[in-house]
Hints:
five-stranded parallel beta sheet
Amino acid sequence: xxxxxxxxDGTLNEYTNTVHFNKVVFEPGFxxxxxxxxxxxxxxxxxxxxxxxISASPSEIHDDEKYKWLKRFCPFVPTENIIITRWQEENKxxxxxxxxxxxxxxxxxxxxxxxxxxxxRQAEKMGINPIHTSRLIGMIExxxxx
Length: 146
């Protein structure tokens, strides 16, 4: 079985320009107001694979916003498959590796879909199949599957 780990910001919902990111990220409602990338969500909901979310968050308040957004737009991802890490305190990829080890998953069957190239390079070094968000959109448009 395939196991798909999905970044949230810039992968499942709209990308935020990092030039303005630090000015608005801590405002209440920042994450809950993000628009979904419907093409990606429709594709993923029908994909035959175990789906997980791996996302970083600046605070517990924002964690709650992310959980609510995911419940609304990604009901196909079970709550127990949502991993939220804390920015600047925990490396998202370290947490992912711990999670994979705990589940004892075959890395050949694991995919990371993310918009950050650094995370994708780390995933590849870990033996995980990396897919950039733009590549996924191309796959969707060509009606390819993971």
